[in-house]
Structures are given as C-alpha cells and as structure tokens.
Write a structure and sequence with these properties.
Length: 115
Amino acid sequence: QVQLVESGGGLVQPGGSLRLACLASGFPFSDYAMTWYRQPSGKEREWVASIGSTGTTNYADSVKGRFTITRDNLKNMVYLYLNSLKPEETAVHYCNVYYRDMDYWGKGTLVTVSS
C-alpha cells in the first residue's frame, strides 16, 4: 500500500524560508519521480516541482530560483526547500507519486506566509 506523509508546514513571515518533507512507502521509491503540488484556499491545485528517479529536477516558473526539490533514496524521503516566500503562496502542499497508472497523494501540510 502506497503511503505518503508530509511534514514541515507552519507559519512563516514574508521573505522567510521553510523545509517540507515527505516520507514515502509501499513502492520502489528510488525508481519513481516525485512531485510537489500546492493548493491555496479556494483555488486550483498547481504543480510546483518534480524530481526524477535519476535526480533531474523541474520547477514551475513561479518558483524557479527560490525553491529546491531534493530526494534521499536511502531514507525514502523527498524534500522541498521554500525560500523568499510571498503571502500569496499560502497553501496546502501535497506530495505526489504516479505509480502503476495511479496518482497517490499525501494528506498535505499547510504553509502560511503572513506577518
């Protein structure tokens, strides 16, 4: 059974930084790309960043240069480093994997950017 558990969300000031983590289990983690999405309240879910099985990364234009996605295959962990955060980026952040023709999601972790 695939399981994704996010952590690390919380309150941060505009311009501040935060690290999110996702613990994965139930599938061969090192063979699969991992993705972070975010969803502000009342808005659609949007793609943020992905990291491939070989470590290649891709980012949404809105976060390029500010966010970094990494993975630790020995720990089955994927991380998202969020820097220079803006108030409009307040959102629930979700970890995702597409495995055997299905999308799997964690429950999400809330990042609140406010002074």
